[in-house]
Each structure stands twice: as C-alpha cells, then as structure tokens.
Amino acid sequence: MFQRPPTASSTLWEPSPKGACLSTIDFKPPQLSTASSYNLGLKFEHGKLRKGGSTCRTIYSVSRKPSVEPTFRKRDASPQNEDLPAVLPKQKKKPYPIPLKKIKQAAKVNKKLAEKGIEKPLDPPKNGLLDPDLIPVAHQVLHAWKALIKGLAQLLHVIPVYGCLECSEVHVAQSGHHIQDCLGPSNATRRSFHSWMKGSINDVLVPIEAYHLYDPFGRRIKHETRFQYDRIPAVVELCIQAGVDIPEYPSRRRTKPIRMIGKKVIDRGGFVEEPEQWHAANPSSLAIADLDTHGASERFAPPLSSDIPKIAQETLDAYETVKSGVTKLMKKCSVKACGYCPEVHVGPWGHNAKLCGEFKHQWRDGKHGWQDATVDEVFPPNYVWHVKDPKGPPMKGGALKKFYGKVPAVVELCLQAGAQIPEKYKPMMRLDIVVPEIDEAQLVA
Question: pLDDT tens digits for 28-47?
C-alpha cells in the first residue's frame, strides 16, 4: 500500500567540497481517490550550486496519471431463470418507492416556493382537473376489469384452486402440494404442512378495496365517519377519479384547478355536499355487482368445454390490460399505501381512520403510515407455484423446492385452461429445468 509522504518540507545537510550544502526537499503529495486507480510517477529537479553560496535546492514532486479504463463492455446476458422479488419482513416498514433523497429534495423546493409565496405548480389530475389522455385508458381498464372477473369466475368451475386455512398460500392444481412452508399459527403441530381447502376467486384475484370519495380534495375521512363511505375495489376507484362516470358512485368534476402553497390548499372551490342518493344505491344491482368479485361464481355458469381455451386467453389478455392500464394511471394519479399494512387510498393524501394493526401500531395510535403506492400494492400479482403437470403427483418440498418456478395466480389458472404462455413470464416459470428425483437432488450442483 502506498504511504502518503509528509506535506511539510524537509531540510537536510549534505557534505560538499566547498563546504556544507543545505538541501531542501519539498514533497507534493497527490490527492488519491478510492474510486479510481492511478499510476504514480516521480519527478526530480536538481538545482545548481550557486557560486559563493552554501545552499542547493532539490525538489521532489509526485504526479498522478489516471489509468486507462478497459474499452470492452460486458455482454448483457438474456434472462433465463428469473427470481421473484424478495418477501418483505413484517417487522419493518416498507421501503419508499421513491428514494428518500429525492423526496427531501422535492420538499426543499416546495418549501422555498412557499416562503416566497409562490404557488405550487400542479398538473392534471393532481390539480383536481381531468386529464383528457387518461379518460380512454380508465375506460379500457374498467372494461378489462369486468372481463377479468367474468373470465375467472367461469374458469374456476373447471380448474380447481386450493387455499390454506392457516396462511395466505394458494395452489392451482388438482390437489394441494406437499411443500412444508406454512407460516400459520398452528404450523408446528402440522410440521409446516398446509391445511388445504377449496379456494374462491378472492384467492386468485386478491381484493384490495379503498374508500370511495365524492371529492378527493375535500374533507378527510375521520375514524368516526368511516362508515359513511363505501368500500369499492381500488382499481375501480382509480378509474372513477381518472374520468369514468358511474351513476352509483358519483364524483365531483371541477372546472377550476385547486391552488396550493406548500402543503396548504388556498383555493379548492369550497366544500360541496355529497348527493343523497349516493348512499341509497343497491349493492346487489347488476351495474355494481359486475365491478366486485363478491358472488361472481354464482353469477356466471360453467362454460362449455370447447370454449375454455378461448375464455382463458381472453381472461389473460384482460389481466395484462388491467395491469398495464393501472401502471399508466398511477404515473399521474395520486395513490397512497400504508407502509405497514395492505391498506390503499386513492387520493392526494390518506385518510385518518385508525385501522392499522401491523408493526408498532400502538406507537401510531392505529393510524396508517402513508407513502406513495406501487402497482403491486394496488393490483397484487399473488405468486403461486407453477405446476408442469396439473394431473400428476403433488409437488414435494425439501431439496426439490429450488427447481420449481412461480407465476401470478391468474396467469397459472389461465395457462392450465389452455392460454398461451406470455414471454415475460417464462424466465420465472423455469421451463428449461428438469425436476430431479428426491435421491438425485443432493447430487445436483
């Protein structure tokens, strides 16, 4: 390791034929960096001995030369076997989807504008107005959402789905698997085996609900008034606020934008009373029932055997349409999620209902820790094991677990019904891996 020379000059006495010679050595150390590598070069300058003088000056300087970086670039390998996102621990807060450094920078800019009395620049729909580009996307998402619920309800009459009584594990096959990964309350008595029962559409399409607000920029929902608001799927509420008009769930449409200075709203157009007929809507009406998964299997009859592959492909296409559309809407619409529990709120700020019961909820008095939501929190994929042979023997755990792949539950259900495999799901399904026998698994590197 290179030792940095001293910064001060050193004075040495050297013998000379004409007397003593004073030699001054000046060191100029380089500024080294751990991020770059340098080649050190030494430069020496010898001063001439003056006549009649008794001193001579010798200067030692150290220079640095940056090393030449290699010109080759590593070739990007095509994804062959892709791992799933890591499961977040429940004893910690979820990471911020936006880096905390950028959040602080944006807050500092807004604070400076507020100190100068300058209004915060807001673009639709964050200023209360509708974005014309998002209205057709919202209609497309809502139409695909209805088709997705209908297709899953029909396929569940043909493809069996099982759910664990003690945990959230779901399996799509003729019978439950034998993988010992149950984390339920009584898993010790069952040696971590799952306790399977017949599943429903809510096991495949996880229901994420949110409060419907007539005016998202109006009064906040309090803990005492939470029962005055309806709970509808978060995807439907997102489409309503993006521009879809549903008579049973009206929404305020502004003609003038709201104005904000910092975090304070200085002009929201006043508070408007909500329509009285809003809460009088019948939840069992056909227009509202198509938007929810409740009782979907009873509303749709089993399909014909010849129509199953077609329904499966249409359902898979509807799933991809909903996912891509929700991604487009969330890039402009404000959606908040709790950093501790699955609660989601569609609006510029979260509600004040004290319903959080996750990690350290006593310190927060049951209030949610709101942050920006991700697409998987609004429309969760719910990964399940991919079964190569649904009619074969049950999947076994232990050493064979690492050879299995996973896909979203909706995708696995549609694939077993006859749909084509999308290219983006093939790396995580591990189709090119041959599952060995139990006695051979230990011999595989």
Answer: 444 444 344 444 444 444 44
Tell me the pLDDT tens digit for each residue of 66-124.
Answer: 555 544 444 445 567 777 778 888 888 999 999 999 999 999 999 999 999 998 888 89
Report the alpha-carbon angle 143-149-152, nearest 5: 135
Q: pTM value? A: 0.79
Report the residue count for the chain. Answer: 445
Query: Residue 433 class from Cβ within 10 Å (0-12 exposed, 13-18 middle, 19+ buried)?
Result: middle
- Kindly report each contact of residues 110-113 with a partner whose C-beta sits within 8 Å and lies 24 or more positions away, as own/partner: 110/262, 110/263, 111/262, 113/261, 113/262
The tokens for 142 are 């809502």
Q: Is 282 left (phi over 0), alpha (psi -120 to 50) or beta?
A: beta
Identify whether the C-beta of residue 394 lies closer than 8 Å to the C-beta of residue 351: no
CB 386 within 8 A of CB 433: no
Sequence-distant (6+) residues with CB within 8 A of 164 are 170, 176, 182, 184, 194, 195, 196, 197
Q: Check: CB of residue 342 under 8 Å from CB of residue 198.
A: no
Cα dihedral: 314, 316, 320, 325 (round 10): 50
Cα distance between residue 34 and residue 28, in whole Å: 19
The answer to whether the beta carbons of residues 234 and 334 sit under 8 Å apart is: no
Q: Could you give the C-alpha distances from 423 to 166, 223, 427, 429, in angstroms and in order?
A: 34, 46, 8, 10
- Beta-bridge partners for 171: 162
